[in-house]
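Bumping with the actual sequence this time:
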Amino acid sequence: MSRYSVIDVGSNTIHLLVGEVTEAGVLPVTGEKVSARLGSGVEKTGSIAPERLELAARAISLFAGIAALNGAEEPAILATSAVRDAENGPDLVKRVEEETGISMRLISGEEEATLGFKGAVSAVGEDPWEGPALVVDLGGGSAQFTLGEAQAGPLMQTSLPLGSNRTTERFVEHDPPKKKELKALDDHVKEILPDWQIVQGVPVVAVGGSARAILKITPDRLTVERLRTLADELRETKSAELARDHGLAPERAKVMPAAVTTLAAVLEHFGRDELNVVRGGLREGTIISLAEKS
Protein backbone atom coordinates (compact mmCIF):
# COMPACT_ATOMS: atom_id res chain seq x y z
CA MET A 1 0.00 0.00 0.00
CA SER A 2 1.34 3.44 -0.97
CA ARG A 3 2.30 5.90 1.70
CA TYR A 4 1.86 9.65 1.56
CA SER A 5 3.02 12.46 3.79
CA VAL A 6 2.22 16.05 4.59
CA ILE A 7 4.03 18.70 6.61
CA ASP A 8 1.46 21.15 7.93
CA VAL A 9 3.17 24.47 8.74
CA GLY A 10 0.61 26.01 11.06
CA SER A 11 0.51 29.20 13.07
CA ASN A 12 1.22 27.39 16.34
CA THR A 13 2.57 23.93 15.49
CA ILE A 14 4.36 22.26 12.59
CA HIS A 15 3.04 18.73 12.09
CA LEU A 16 4.26 15.77 10.06
CA LEU A 17 1.81 13.01 9.16
CA VAL A 18 2.75 9.93 7.17
CA GLY A 19 -0.20 7.72 6.35
CA GLU A 20 -1.90 5.19 4.14
CA VAL A 21 -5.40 5.56 2.73
CA THR A 22 -7.91 2.79 3.43
CA GLU A 23 -11.66 2.51 2.92
CA ALA A 24 -12.10 3.63 6.52
CA GLY A 25 -9.98 6.78 6.07
CA VAL A 26 -6.35 7.67 6.73
CA LEU A 27 -4.29 5.10 8.64
CA PRO A 28 -1.42 6.93 10.39
CA VAL A 29 2.04 5.42 10.00
CA THR A 30 3.99 7.99 11.97
CA GLY A 31 3.70 11.60 13.03
CA GLU A 32 5.80 14.31 14.61
CA LYS A 33 5.20 17.85 15.76
CA VAL A 34 7.08 20.86 17.04
CA SER A 35 5.69 24.04 18.56
CA ALA A 36 7.33 26.77 16.46
CA ARG A 37 4.59 29.36 17.14
CA LEU A 38 5.18 31.08 13.80
CA GLY A 39 2.08 33.19 14.29
CA SER A 40 3.29 34.69 17.57
CA GLY A 41 3.40 38.46 17.12
CA VAL A 42 2.39 38.46 13.45
CA GLU A 43 -0.89 40.22 14.29
CA LYS A 44 1.08 43.17 15.76
CA THR A 45 4.36 43.24 13.80
CA GLY A 46 3.37 41.78 10.44
CA SER A 47 6.41 39.48 10.44
CA ILE A 48 7.53 36.12 11.79
CA ALA A 49 10.39 36.42 14.32
CA PRO A 50 13.73 35.38 12.76
CA GLU A 51 14.42 32.75 15.41
CA ARG A 52 11.04 31.14 14.70
CA LEU A 53 11.80 31.08 10.97
CA GLU A 54 15.07 29.32 11.78
CA LEU A 55 13.34 26.73 13.97
CA ALA A 56 10.65 26.14 11.33
CA ALA A 57 13.17 25.61 8.53
CA ARG A 58 15.12 23.07 10.60
CA ALA A 59 11.96 21.22 11.66
CA ILE A 60 10.62 21.01 8.11
CA SER A 61 13.94 19.67 6.82
CA LEU A 62 14.01 17.06 9.61
CA PHE A 63 10.40 16.04 8.99
CA ALA A 64 11.06 15.62 5.25
CA GLY A 65 13.83 13.17 6.15
CA ILE A 66 11.59 11.26 8.56
CA ALA A 67 8.90 11.01 5.87
CA ALA A 68 11.41 9.51 3.43
CA LEU A 69 12.60 6.99 6.04
CA ASN A 70 8.98 5.89 6.43
CA GLY A 71 8.40 5.28 2.75
CA ALA A 72 6.94 8.62 1.67
CA GLU A 73 9.57 10.17 -0.55
CA GLU A 74 8.31 13.73 -1.09
CA PRO A 75 5.91 15.28 1.40
CA ALA A 76 3.42 17.97 0.57
CA ILE A 77 4.58 21.00 2.55
CA LEU A 78 1.68 23.34 3.16
CA ALA A 79 1.91 26.73 4.86
CA THR A 80 -1.23 28.26 6.28
CA SER A 81 -2.24 31.51 7.96
CA ALA A 82 0.95 32.67 9.73
CA VAL A 83 3.23 32.23 6.72
CA ARG A 84 0.49 33.40 4.37
CA ASP A 85 -0.01 36.66 6.27
CA ALA A 86 3.57 37.50 7.28
CA GLU A 87 5.66 39.91 5.22
CA ASN A 88 8.65 37.59 5.49
CA GLY A 89 6.70 34.41 4.82
CA PRO A 90 8.36 34.03 1.37
CA ASP A 91 11.74 33.88 3.15
CA LEU A 92 10.72 30.59 4.77
CA VAL A 93 9.43 29.24 1.46
CA LYS A 94 12.79 30.00 -0.16
CA ARG A 95 14.80 28.54 2.72
CA VAL A 96 12.82 25.29 2.74
CA GLU A 97 13.28 24.76 -1.00
CA GLU A 98 17.02 25.41 -0.70
CA GLU A 99 17.43 22.91 2.14
CA THR A 100 15.03 20.15 1.04
CA GLY A 101 14.62 20.59 -2.69
CA ILE A 102 10.84 20.53 -2.09
CA SER A 103 8.55 23.45 -2.80
CA MET A 104 6.44 24.66 0.10
CA ARG A 105 3.02 25.91 -0.98
CA LEU A 106 1.25 28.86 0.56
CA ILE A 107 -2.30 27.57 0.36
CA SER A 108 -5.28 29.90 0.33
CA GLY A 109 -7.87 29.96 3.07
CA GLU A 110 -10.35 28.42 0.63
CA GLU A 111 -8.06 25.49 -0.18
CA GLU A 112 -7.37 25.04 3.53
CA ALA A 113 -11.13 24.87 4.12
CA THR A 114 -11.60 22.29 1.37
CA LEU A 115 -8.83 20.04 2.67
CA GLY A 116 -10.06 20.38 6.25
CA PHE A 117 -13.57 19.39 5.15
CA LYS A 118 -12.24 16.35 3.31
CA GLY A 119 -10.24 15.34 6.39
CA ALA A 120 -13.29 15.73 8.62
CA VAL A 121 -15.32 13.47 6.35
CA SER A 122 -12.55 10.86 6.39
CA ALA A 123 -12.45 10.92 10.19
CA VAL A 124 -16.12 9.99 10.37
CA GLY A 125 -15.23 6.78 8.50
CA GLU A 126 -17.69 4.54 6.70
CA ASP A 127 -20.75 6.11 8.34
CA PRO A 128 -20.65 9.84 7.47
CA TRP A 129 -23.36 12.26 8.44
CA GLU A 130 -26.48 12.44 6.30
CA GLY A 131 -27.15 15.69 4.47
CA PRO A 132 -25.08 18.85 4.94
CA ALA A 133 -22.82 19.70 7.88
CA LEU A 134 -20.92 22.80 8.93
CA VAL A 135 -17.24 21.99 9.44
CA VAL A 136 -15.23 24.48 11.51
CA ASP A 137 -11.44 24.16 11.27
CA LEU A 138 -10.16 26.33 14.12
CA GLY A 139 -6.47 26.95 13.61
CA GLY A 140 -3.98 29.30 15.20
CA GLY A 141 -4.19 32.19 12.76
CA SER A 142 -7.43 31.58 10.91
CA ALA A 143 -10.62 29.58 11.06
CA GLN A 144 -12.17 27.89 8.04
CA PHE A 145 -15.92 27.39 7.75
CA THR A 146 -17.29 24.93 5.21
CA LEU A 147 -20.92 23.97 4.68
CA GLY A 148 -21.01 20.79 2.64
CA GLU A 149 -22.12 17.21 2.20
CA ALA A 150 -20.02 14.12 2.76
CA GLN A 151 -20.48 12.85 -0.78
CA ALA A 152 -21.06 16.04 -2.77
CA GLY A 153 -18.34 18.06 -1.03
CA PRO A 154 -18.29 21.76 -0.08
CA LEU A 155 -21.28 23.95 -0.93
CA MET A 156 -20.13 27.19 0.74
CA GLN A 157 -16.86 28.08 2.44
CA THR A 158 -14.93 31.00 3.87
CA SER A 159 -11.74 31.65 5.82
CA LEU A 160 -11.74 34.25 8.60
CA PRO A 161 -9.00 35.68 10.88
CA LEU A 162 -10.42 33.93 13.95
CA GLY A 163 -7.59 31.55 14.82
CA SER A 164 -7.16 31.06 18.55
CA ASN A 165 -3.60 32.43 18.62
CA ARG A 166 -4.62 35.54 16.73
CA THR A 167 -7.72 36.23 18.84
CA THR A 168 -5.80 35.61 22.07
CA GLU A 169 -3.18 38.18 21.09
CA ARG A 170 -5.85 40.67 20.08
CA PHE A 171 -8.38 40.31 22.88
CA VAL A 172 -6.83 38.55 25.89
CA GLU A 173 -4.40 40.58 27.99
CA HIS A 174 -4.62 38.68 31.28
CA ASP A 175 -3.96 35.12 32.43
CA PRO A 176 -6.55 34.02 33.30
CA PRO A 177 -8.62 36.29 31.04
CA LYS A 178 -11.10 38.88 32.24
CA LYS A 179 -14.80 38.48 31.54
CA LYS A 180 -14.86 41.67 29.46
CA GLU A 181 -12.02 40.36 27.27
CA LEU A 182 -13.91 37.21 26.30
CA LYS A 183 -17.11 39.23 25.85
CA ALA A 184 -15.33 41.49 23.36
CA LEU A 185 -14.07 38.42 21.50
CA ASP A 186 -17.56 36.89 21.48
CA ASP A 187 -19.01 40.08 19.97
CA HIS A 188 -16.25 40.19 17.35
CA VAL A 189 -16.77 36.59 16.26
CA LYS A 190 -20.52 37.05 15.80
CA GLU A 191 -19.95 40.30 13.92
CA ILE A 192 -17.77 38.80 11.17
CA LEU A 193 -19.25 35.31 10.77
CA PRO A 194 -21.06 34.77 7.46
CA ASP A 195 -24.80 35.22 7.32
CA TRP A 196 -25.49 31.71 6.07
CA GLN A 197 -29.03 30.43 6.47
CA ILE A 198 -28.58 26.90 7.82
CA VAL A 199 -31.62 24.68 8.25
CA GLN A 200 -32.38 22.88 11.48
CA GLY A 201 -30.68 19.53 11.97
CA VAL A 202 -27.37 20.49 10.33
CA PRO A 203 -24.58 19.36 12.66
CA VAL A 204 -21.55 21.52 13.49
CA VAL A 205 -18.32 19.53 13.27
CA ALA A 206 -15.07 20.98 14.66
CA VAL A 207 -11.53 19.95 13.73
CA GLY A 208 -8.15 21.27 14.79
CA GLY A 209 -5.88 21.14 17.81
CA SER A 210 -7.87 23.52 19.99
CA ALA A 211 -11.12 21.64 19.38
CA ARG A 212 -9.46 18.33 20.25
CA ALA A 213 -7.94 19.89 23.38
CA ILE A 214 -11.44 20.64 24.70
CA LEU A 215 -12.02 16.89 24.87
CA LYS A 216 -9.08 16.63 27.26
CA ILE A 217 -10.56 19.26 29.56
CA THR A 218 -14.13 17.98 29.79
CA PRO A 219 -15.88 14.65 29.04
CA ASP A 220 -19.26 16.37 28.74
CA ARG A 221 -21.33 16.91 25.62
CA LEU A 222 -20.25 20.18 24.05
CA THR A 223 -23.53 22.03 24.15
CA VAL A 224 -23.69 25.81 23.98
CA GLU A 225 -24.38 25.88 27.71
CA ARG A 226 -21.41 23.62 28.51
CA LEU A 227 -19.04 25.68 26.37
CA ARG A 228 -20.21 28.84 28.11
CA THR A 229 -19.71 27.36 31.59
CA LEU A 230 -16.34 26.00 30.48
CA ALA A 231 -15.28 29.48 29.39
CA ASP A 232 -16.28 30.73 32.85
CA GLU A 233 -14.22 27.96 34.46
CA LEU A 234 -11.21 28.89 32.34
CA ARG A 235 -11.51 32.48 33.59
CA GLU A 236 -10.70 31.10 37.04
CA THR A 237 -7.71 29.03 35.96
CA LYS A 238 -4.21 30.12 35.00
CA SER A 239 -2.95 28.59 31.76
CA ALA A 240 -0.05 26.86 33.56
CA GLU A 241 -2.51 25.06 35.83
CA LEU A 242 -4.68 24.11 32.85
CA ALA A 243 -1.66 22.68 31.06
CA ARG A 244 -0.55 20.70 34.12
CA ASP A 245 -3.97 19.34 35.04
CA HIS A 246 -5.05 18.26 31.55
CA GLY A 247 -1.83 17.36 29.78
CA LEU A 248 -1.87 20.30 27.37
CA ALA A 249 1.13 22.06 25.89
CA PRO A 250 1.54 25.43 27.63
CA GLU A 251 1.08 27.25 24.32
CA ARG A 252 -2.18 25.38 23.71
CA ALA A 253 -3.44 26.07 27.24
CA LYS A 254 -2.97 29.83 26.78
CA VAL A 255 -5.34 29.98 23.81
CA MET A 256 -8.09 27.71 25.16
CA PRO A 257 -10.30 30.48 26.63
CA ALA A 258 -10.39 32.17 23.22
CA ALA A 259 -10.95 28.86 21.43
CA VAL A 260 -13.88 27.84 23.67
CA THR A 261 -15.43 31.32 23.43
CA THR A 262 -15.11 31.31 19.63
CA LEU A 263 -16.75 27.91 19.21
CA ALA A 264 -19.60 28.84 21.57
CA ALA A 265 -20.17 32.02 19.55
CA VAL A 266 -20.24 29.98 16.34
CA LEU A 267 -22.96 27.71 17.71
CA GLU A 268 -25.05 30.65 18.88
CA HIS A 269 -24.60 32.56 15.63
CA PHE A 270 -25.85 29.65 13.53
CA GLY A 271 -28.52 28.59 15.99
CA ARG A 272 -27.02 25.19 16.74
CA ASP A 273 -27.20 23.42 20.10
CA GLU A 274 -24.12 21.17 20.14
CA LEU A 275 -20.59 20.83 18.80
CA ASN A 276 -19.13 17.56 17.51
CA VAL A 277 -15.33 17.17 17.50
CA VAL A 278 -13.63 14.74 15.09
CA ARG A 279 -9.97 13.80 14.85
CA GLY A 280 -9.33 14.65 11.24
CA GLY A 281 -8.59 17.78 9.27
CA LEU A 282 -6.14 19.44 6.92
CA ARG A 283 -3.45 16.76 7.14
CA GLU A 284 -5.79 13.84 6.57
CA GLY A 285 -7.53 15.70 3.76
CA THR A 286 -4.18 16.38 2.08
CA ILE A 287 -3.13 12.73 2.24
CA ILE A 288 -6.45 11.66 0.70
CA SER A 289 -5.97 14.23 -2.08
CA LEU A 290 -2.44 12.95 -2.76
CA ALA A 291 -3.77 9.40 -2.99
CA GLU A 292 -6.54 10.47 -5.36
CA LYS A 293 -4.09 12.24 -7.65
CA SER A 294 -1.78 9.23 -7.81
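The C-alpha coordinates above came from a reply further down the thread. The mean pLDDT is 93.
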